[in-house]
Structure formats: structure tokens, C-alpha cells
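Translate sequence into C-alpha cells.
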Amino acid sequence: MTFVQRGRRVAFTTLARFSKSRRGLFFPAAGFVALCTLAVAADYFFPPDLSRAKQQALILRDCNGLNLDARVSADGSWRLTTRSVDVDPAYLTLLLKTEDRRFWWHPGVDPFSVMRAAWQLALRGHIVSGGSTLAMQTARLLTPHRHTWRGKIEDAFRAIQLEWRYGHAGVLDLYLTLAPEGGSIEGVRAGSLRWFGHEPERLSLAESALLVALPRRPTALRPDRHPDAALRATARVLANVNAAPPSVLALRLEAARIPHDSPSLLAHEWRGGVRGVLRTSLDRARQETVQRILRAVSPPRRGGWAALVLRRDGSVMAWVGNAGNECPGCDADMVTAWRSPGSTMKPFIYGLAFQQGLLTPDTIVHDNAERFSNYTPRNYDRVFHGAITVRKALQQSYNLPAVRALDLIGARYFAATLHDNGVDLRLPGGTSPSLAIALGGAGVRMLDLGQLYNALARGGLSSPPTISWPAPKSQPTRLFSTGAARQILSILRGAPMPVGLANARDRDLAFKTGTSYGQRDAWAAGVCGGWTVVVWGGRPDGAPSPGITGLRLAAPLMVQIMNTLPIEPTEMGAPLPALGELSPSLEILPERQGPHIVSPPDGAVVESFADDGSATPIGLEASGGAQPYRWIINGRTLSVESGVTPSWLPDGPGFAHVAVVDAQGRGAAATVRVR
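Result follows.
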């Protein structure tokens, strides 16, 4: 055989051997690829169910870190998302030494633990130690099931899948969120807050050991019910790091108590999708004080109260959406409900008119009947008061001057200005803004009213109320000029106070009241010392409450709440700047004191009808102003002979509207109940 022939034969043999070797490697490689493909497909079509981990509880805290209110998760657990970076390192050390020493290197299933458990089972005939890793425990916590061999196998596959998807750190975070810590408490953060009253980032060694031990037997080891068993379990965990056992468990159950001081805000945040622990701007002591004030006074029949207190920066200090509710099923949050504001929008109509130079506080306006297209407004007391200043028109809340002022600036301009400042009006039936806005003809929320009146305290600057703490720094918008804000505050400081109350000099309260059409809503909004307080009274279901008014019903509560707040220095307390020169065409008239009704007083209950149905006349008495007086009962002028004391014979029991007008057209009114 020649050299060439021998070379060809060697080459052919080598090629044949290589081909045979490649054919031998093909099947293992193909099997591996198929297995990987199957694993990826299984992971894609059967992803882990993380719904339990995503269902969180909500805990509200006040600005001082005290608990305000809370709500369990949708499945009834006190579960809070917990990350390993937010947990004390001592806890993590104890957890891994106790539950999974090789956690950081195995793929979700620890082969050494499995072999040890199998060997002990074969040797002793029963399970001595389990082979579950933290990943396998997490899989079982995500989809709870009975402890069976089939369940163990499923947990193993899910553990590998969890490690594949989320890595070691992700699996650890899931376990920290789901670990049962006694009763309905799940997760290390919830457990730390419940048993020790603080966050898990500063756990002691003994506290860490208890939280590590609890998931093994969360019911039998509950420290509030079985303290001795919990203490022994804690000692066993500490033995893993050669630490001395504690003599007692230092629980702080009272510090972790969850009051129910802010249910309305809690429901509002829950509907907004907020979960976890939320630190709010509320002050629990002030919140409780406001609730106490509201609940101490009987609300309108089948009605309730609501109140909002804002700091100067717009942060909410108290939020009471429904207190003293006597309306079955009417548990709406009136802080966020859309309601008619009555006359509470008038200061902002005049403020924009001041800014545009169309009016000043001492401009003379005429309060008399006028028709605006198809709209004919009238005053609450059904009396027109003739020539008056803007100052008095706003202080006495006369309707016609406010409608004229809105007509001057334009209803569309007014609504657009509010919208640009983050306040929207809800118009009936999608209609365009109209002059009826001046008298409450558009829906508004208490939050919006709080923002508007808070703008007066901030010199015309406006920003939406916030419950975040610390209050976020945001760029406010300008509702109107500082001068206009000062002028409005100066006017509102002279508004008539509720019966029996006085505007203390050191408080310098500026406020406005409002009553919606049909007596469905009674409002009072006040500004003093940097604080803004808004109070509402009425029926949450929107039904009328005959006889209610903002001045008589809501204003006294607003004043009580304001008087509990500390006096803060305010630039708005500085002397008001001199008003600009008035237009030469405007006339200035000195203000005079008008009449007021002595009897019957506003809100009185007058006995007139006997058991046999006969009625006794009700005497009428007024003082002040310029006589002679003209009396108007329920819109009808009363005929009174000269020299005879006026009296009125009611047609029947019920509410009646009594008004008096003096010789110069100034008037006063009262609403009384006859029975």
C-alpha cells in the first residue's frame, strides 16, 4: 500500500468516526433543547400567581407618625409589601440560618436538604426535617394548599420558576411580604408594626427571632395569646447564632392600636388605589377635636356634618367627611361630594371684579328687581334693599348685587378662571356657565371651597389641598391679586356673626355662609390666622332640611373649630392697603345700621295653634333702622294699621319666613317654625 493510499484510508476512517460521534451527541443535545423549550413554554403558559402578594392593606398615619385609621386587604389580611432592604440585617441573618442556609446559591430547590430529608425518612420511617427552601415556602404562600407529596412537588417546580423569574432577591422580598406572623397578619413589616409598634428596619435580635419563628406555627406561637410558647420558639431561633434567649418578650400592642379616626379619608385613598402605610398631613389630636365638636351638636333631621381644616400651605389638618350621620345608608364622604355651594362663591366673584377694576368695596350698587334674559334672581329674605355698597352687599349676602357683579365679569370668564386654578364646577345637564353660579347654581366640592378660601389666606395664591406629608412643594397659581384678596378679607371680617358669638379681636375671623336652594346644604367657610375651616350640614342624600341656614347651623360649628386652632402669625393681619381711587361716576354713601327682628327671633319655635285648631296671633317687633317698618310674611306684605302693634295670624303650622323693611329700604329676615 502506497503512502497516498494509506493517507486516504486514515482520512476516511477519521471522518467516519467523527460522523458517528456527532450522531451520538445529537440526541442529548436535542433532548436538552426540548427540555428548555418545554420549561420556557410552561413558564409562559403557567406563570406564578402573585395576586396574594399584590393585595395590600392600607394604614393611615398622621403627620406625627401616629396611627389614624386602617383597612385590611381585599382578602382580609394585614399584609404590607416588605423588601429586604427595609428589614434589619439581624433578621435576615437569623432567617437564612434557620430556614435556608444555602439560599443564595441553589436554584430554588436545595439538593442537599432534599437528600438529607429522604435519608432521615428512610432511616427512621417518618419525616425528621423538611427539605423546603424559602423559595418553596414562598410558592406555597402564594397558592396555599395542603401539605401533601403532590403539593411538595408542585412547590419545587414553582420555586425553580420563581428563582428563574425574579432571582434570589425577588423571592426573598415575596417571602418577607407573605410570611404569616400570627392571626391575619402577613409579612415582616405588618408583624413588626403589630407586635412591636415600629418599622422592621430597627428590629432587636429577640424581635427578629420571634418574627422568624412565627411562620412555622403562626397560631400556636401568637405572642399575645401564647407568650410562653412564643418565648421558647424565640430562644430556639437565637440558639442558631449562639445568642442568649430573652427573659421576656417586649411587646408594644398599645402602640400598634389602630383607631378609626378618619374613615372618610381612608375610603377616599382606598378608592384611589393607595395601599401600604401612608403618612398624611392630618393631625390626630385635631382630627379627634373636630369630630368631637361635630358630634356634640345634633345634625339636621336624618342628616349629618362634614368639616375640612387646611393649613396655610394647603395641607389638610382635619378631614371629617360624615359625622353624626342620622340618615340610614347615607355614609357618603361630603368632603368630596358635589353639592350646591349656595352663596359661598360670592367673595370670589367680587374678588375678580375688584381685580379688573369694575368694582371696589365702596362702590354703590342697587339691590332691586331685575331680569337677566330668562333669569330673575331674588334675595333669600325676598326683600330688596335699594342702594347699598358692595361691602354691605357681600356682608349681608344679597343676591342681586352678586348676580350683577358676575354679569360684569362674565360667567364663562369666572368658570374658566376657577378651572385654571384647579377648581371645576359641575353644571347641570352639561349646560354652559350662567349667572345662576352666583347663587349656587353649579356643583362644587368641599375640597374646592377649601382651596378657594385658602387662597384668601395666601394673598390670592391657589393650590389644590394635599394630604401628603411633608407637604409637597408645588408652584401655586394666582386666583386674583393680593390687593383683591385683602379687600375681600376686610369685608368678610365684618360679616354678621352667629347669634351669641362675637368676632374676637385677636382672632380677626373672616367668613362667609351659604344656604343652597331648597335648604339642602348649609355652609360656613372661614379664614383666620393662616387657617381655613369649611363646615357643611345637611342630608347626604340631597333631600331638603327645612329651616336650615348656613349662618344659624354651620357657622357656630365653624367658629368653635376655629377657636381650637392656635393663632399663627400671618401677613394677612397687616394693615390693609389704601383702596384705589373710585371711578368719578360712582357715588359713595355712608353705611347705616339697618333694622333687625327682635321677635320672633331667627330659628325660634313659636306656639300658636291650640288642640282645637284655633290660632293665636304672633306679635312682631323690630328695632333699628328708620321707621315706619313694613312686614312681609312668606312673600306677602302684612297690613298693619297706624298706631297698632303689628301681629300675624298664621295660616297653619310649619316653617314661615318673616321679613321687615325700614323706610330706607334696608331689611332683615328670620325663619321660624309655627306649631
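Note: The mean pLDDT is 84.
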